[in-house]
Design goal:
- This protein is mostly beta strands and about 475 residues long.
- The chain has one domain: Porin.
- About 15% of the residues lie in helices and about 40% in strands.
- Helix 4 crosses helix 5.
- The N and C termini lie far apart (about 50 Å).
C-alpha cells in the first residue's frame, strides 16, 4: 500500500509538472518563433472567399452563414477499457477492480428555425433529437469523477431516441450597435445587438449556457471526465440524461454578461421523472461572466456561478444518526428525505489564452455537503487546472493535445455515511478509508478529414470513490466523432 501511494503521489506530481512545462515550453516556442526571425513582409489583403476557402473544414456538410434554418448532427463513439487494480474490498456501488471494457454511443440531430431575419428582435425555435446507447465501466458507478460524460447512468433506458431539447429563444436588442457571433444550433443569427436581453424557455441542459469553458467543456472533442468538463460540485438540475425543463434570462453587454434560470428537479436522486411542483422543488442558477484578459491581445474570461436546489432530499447526518441509534439496519439516506430540502453552492471558472495556440483553464467548486447528492455527481469540493495546445506548429491546426488535473472531495457527514456502509446513487464500497479522489487526464484529438475526428485518451484515478483502500486505476479510451 505504501509503495502504491508513493507511486501515485509521484505520478500526480510529475504530470502536474508536465502541465507547467508544456505551458512554459509552448509560450517560449511561440516567443522565439516571433523574436528570432526577421520582420516578415506585410501580408496583402485576401478576398473573403479565399480566406473561407483556406479555413479548415470541420463538418461533413457546409452550414450556411445567414440561413433561417439549421440542420446538423453529431455522433460520438467512445471505447473505454480498464486495467485491474488493487482493492482490499468492494461493495455494490464500487468501481470494479477487474479488467473491463465498455462502449458508448451518443447521436444527436440539431434543428432550429429562425422565423424572421430581425437582428434586434430575433427569435429561434429549437428542436433536437438524441439517442444514447452503450454502457459505462462498472455501470457508471464507483467514481465521483466518472471517465465518460456520454454515459447515461440508467442503462435500462436503452438507446430509444428521445427529445433532448425544445426551446424558444428570444432576443430583445437594447441598442442599434451590433457585433458578430458564430451561428450555431442554439442561436442562428450571425449578428446580435451589443447590449441585449435574451430569454430561453423549454427543455435544455444547463451546461449549454452555464459554466461554459472553451478548453474544458466539450466531451466530444476535448476531455471526457465528468469533473473536468463540468464543475463537479455543481449539482445542477437534471434528469438522469442531463436535461431539465425551465426558463432563463440573460443580459449581455460588451465585456460582461449576467444570467439566471429556474429549472425542474428530479423526483428522486438520478431519476428520469421530474417534479413539476415548482413551489417545492426547483433549481435556481445564476452566473456572472467577465470577458477580460489578463494579458494584452489575448482572450480571457472569468465566471462566478451560484446555485440553490430545493427537492425531496435527505441529509447525511440524519441517516447516520438513525443507523447509530439502531433505527435503520444500514445508513439509508432515502429513508430521511424531506420536501423542499435545500442544497446550495458556488463555483469559479476561468480560461486564458497564453499564446496563439496555448490555452489554460481552471475551476473551483464548493457546496454545503450536508444534503444528499441528487442530480449530477457526489462531489462537495473540486479544484481543477488544465491546458490545451493546438497543432499549428506541426501543420495540424485543428488537432489538440490536452492535459488536466482535478482533485475532488466530500465532507465529514458524507464520509461517515459511506464509511458505515451507506450508498449514494453513485458511490458505496461498504467501507471507506477516506482520501481525495485525484484524477489526471490527457488526450490527443486528431482531425482526420472534414467533420471526422479520432482521439486517444488516458485517465489515472487515485483513490477511486474517495477510498485509499482501492486503486490507483488506469482507464484508456479511443473516441471517434463525426460532425455533419
Amino acid at each position: 500500500m505504501r509503495v502504491h501511494s508513493r507511486l501515485t503521489r509521484e505520478l500526480v506530481r510529475a504530470l502536474a509538472g508536465l502541465t507547467l512545462a508544456l505551458a512554459m515550453a509552448a509560450g517560449l516556442a511561440d516567443a522565439q518563433a516571433t523574436d528570432s526571425l526577421p520582420p516578415a513582409p506585410q501580408p496583402q489583403p485576401q478576398p473573403v472567399q479565399q480566406l473561407v476557402a483556406d479555413a479548415p473544414i470541420v463538418a461533413m456538410f457546409p452550414h450556411p452563414e445567414d440561413s433561417r434554418y439549421w440542420l446538423s448532427g453529431q455522433a460520438n463513439i467512445i471505447f473505454q477499457g480498464r486495467l485491474p487494480f488493487h482493492s482490499l474490498y468492494q461493495g455494490s456501488n464500487s468501481f470494479r477492480n477487474s479488467a473491463e471494457y465498455k462502449t458508448s454511443l451518443l447521436g444527436t440531430i440539431y434543428t432550429a428555425l429562425r422565423p424572421t431575419r430581425s437582428i434586434r428582435y430575433n427569435t429561434d425555435l429549437i428542436l433536437d433529437l438524441e439517442s444514447a446507447g452503450g454502457r459505462g465501466l462498472s455501470q457508471a458507478l464507483g467514481l465521483a469523477g466518472f471517465t465518460n460524460l456520454d454515459v447515461v447512468r440508467n442503462p435500462n433506458l436503452g438507446p430509444t431516441p428521445y427529445l433532448a431539447r425544445y426551446q424558444i429563444h428570444q432576443v430583445f436588442g437594447l441598442t442599434q450597435e451590433t457585433t458578430t457571433q458564430e451561428p450555431g444550433p442554439f442561436a442562428l443569427a450571425p449578428s446580435v445587438p451589443v447590449r441585449r436581453v435574451e430569454f430561453r424557455a423549454g427543455k435544455l441542459t444547463l451546461p449549454d449556457f452555464f459554466d461554459a469553458n472553451g478548453p474544458g467543456s466539450d466531451s466530444h472533442l476535448q476531455f471526457m471526465n465528468w469533473t473536468i468538463d463540468n464543475n463537479g460540485a455543481w449539482d445542477y438540475a437534471a434528469d438522469t440524461r442531463g436535461y431539465t425543463v425551465g426558463g432563463m434570462a440573460e443580459y449581455d453587454d460588451k465585456i460582461w454578461s449576467l444570467r439566471y434560470g429556474l429549472f425542474a428537479m428530479p423526483t428522486v436522486a438520478n431519476g428520469i421523472d421530474m417534479d413539476w411542483a415548482f413551489s417545492r422543488a426547483h433549481g435556481q442558477n445564476g452566473e456572472f461572466e467577465l470577458r477580460h484578459s489578463l494579458f494584452p491581445k489575448r482572450k480571457g474570461t472569468q465566471r462566478v456561478l451560484f446555485y440553490a436546489n430545493r427537492a425531496h432530499m435527505g441529509t447525511y447526518r440524519e441517516a447516520v444518526n438513525a443507523f447509530l441509534a439502531g433505527i435503520d439496519k444500514t445508513p439509508t439516506i432515502t429513508l430521511h428525505e424531506h420536501f423542499s430540502a435545500l442544497k446550495y453552492g458556488f463555483g469559479y471558472n476561468t480560461e486564458q489564452e497564453l499564446t496563439e495556440n496555448l490555452r489554460v483553464f481552471g475551476r473551483f467548486g464548493w457546496n454545503d455537503g450536508k444534503t444528499e447528492s441528487f442530480a449530477y455527481t457526489e462531489v462537495e469540493q473540486t479544484v481543477l487546472a488544465g491546458a490545451d495546445y493546438a497543432g499549428t506548429r506541426w501543420r495540424r491546426p485543428v488537432d489538440k493535445i490536452g492535459l488536466a488535473v482535478v482533485s475532488n472531495a466530500i465532507k465529514s457527514d458524507h464520509q461517515e455515511y459511506l464509511k458505515l456502509g451507506g450508498l449514494g446513487f453513485l458511490l458505496g464500497d461498504g467501507n471507506l478509508n477516506y482520501g481525495r479522489e485525484n484524477i489526471v487526464e490527457s488526450y490527443y484529438n486528431w482531425h482526420a478529414w472534414r467533420g471526422l475526428f479520432y482521439a486517444l485518451d488516458v485517465q489515472h484515478i487515485a483513490n477511486p470513490g474517495y477510498n485509499r483502500d482501492r486503486g490507483p486505476a488506469w482507464v484508456g479510451s479511443v473516441r471517434a466523432h463525426v460532425d455533419f
